[in-house]
Design a protein that fits this description.
Order of helices and strands: HHHH
Shape: elongated
Largest sheet: none
Number of strands: 0
Helix content: over 70%
Distance between the termini: 44 Å
Length: 77
């Protein structure tokens, strides 16, 4: 998708796919940026993008909670 976006930076399909890939590997900031760019380019995707952003928020909260639990008491204990 990066190659496509290099030549077609406003390709919504490529942006959406990259956002999904970024979310899958816990790059939440990058995923959020790409989803918001998709929304700017194609407002008709608002429902799907908002759904993805909600999912992303929940996934990030879960990831951060798991990381906190994993290191609880281990850093300075």
């Amino acid at each position: 998708t990066n190659t496509i976006l290099q030549y077609q930076p406003q390709n919504v399909k490529a942006l959406f796919r990259r956002a999904k890939a970024q979310a899958a590997i816990w790059n939440f900031k990058e995923a959020r940026h790409d989803f918001k760019k998709c929304l700017e380019l194609d407002i008709s995707l608002a429902n799907e993008i908002n759904s993805q952003l909600d999912y992303l928020k929940k996934a990030q909260e879960k990831f951060e909670k798991e990381e906190k639990e994993k290191f609880k008491g281990k850093l300075f204990g």
